[in-house]
Amino acid sequence: MGSRKCGGCLSCLLIPLALWSIIVNILLYFPNGQVSYAASNKLTNYVWYFEGICFSGVMMLMVAVVLLVLDNESRYKCCQSENCTKKYMTMLSIIFSALGIAFSGYSLVISALGLLQGPYCRTLDGWEYAFEDTSGRFLTDSSMWSQCLEPTHVVEWNMILFSILIALSGLQVIVCLVRISIQLSKILCGTYSVIIQPGII
């Protein structure tokens, strides 16, 4: 019962994390609240991978809903034996938790790449990725940020939002990993007995 409640709490935690991922990803399309840059495709290419909106957002919401249904396993029976039903639900929970890791892991990697690449901005030489060849050095050297003339403060904008996406995706990965460890412990530690009781046919 305790592990079921724990699993349910973890599944519920995925919902706000997914909603925040969607919000943060949407904000990346509007530097300083301006829509003109998205309309003219003057944004870093990594925002078009929809990592926060689709993968750590909508897809994670779907995973969270399925996991919440599976956590309430007492209402559902897929086979005659209650023990069989619990095992089936546990395996499904592991599979969907693994999918959650894949979705959030994708978002984490793409967000990290977007952070390291830096923003697409207007410099004295025109529109370009001003920090693409710095290997992320610009992240700790604020004196370089003035190279981006437009959008205003786009370096800070991207750094903050991509960092938040990385944190949110990382938390989702951790939650799903904890869920998998809980479900595996049920199987490996013999929570679901496979021994047929005497007198039961």
From TrEMBL:
Give TM regions: 7-28, 48-70, 91-116, 159-178
Domain of life, per lineage:
Eukaryota
Q: Which Pfam families match?
A: L6_membrane (PF05805)
Keyword list, A-Z: Membrane, Transmembrane, Transmembrane helix
Membrane topology according to the record:
Multi-pass membrane protein
A GO cellular component annotation in the UniProt record: membrane
What does the UniProt entry say about where the protein is found?
Answer: Membrane
Give the family this protein belongs to, as stated in its UniProt record. Belongs to the L6 tetraspanin family.
Q: Which PANTHER family match?
A: TRANSMEMBRANE 4 L6 FAMILY MEMBER 1-RELATED (PTHR14198), TRANSMEMBRANE 4 L6 FAMILY MEMBER 18 (PTHR14198:SF14)
Know the name of this protein?
Transmembrane 4 L6 family member 18
Source species? Marmota monax
Q: What is the lineage of its organism?
A: Eukaryota, Metazoa, Chordata, Craniata, Vertebrata
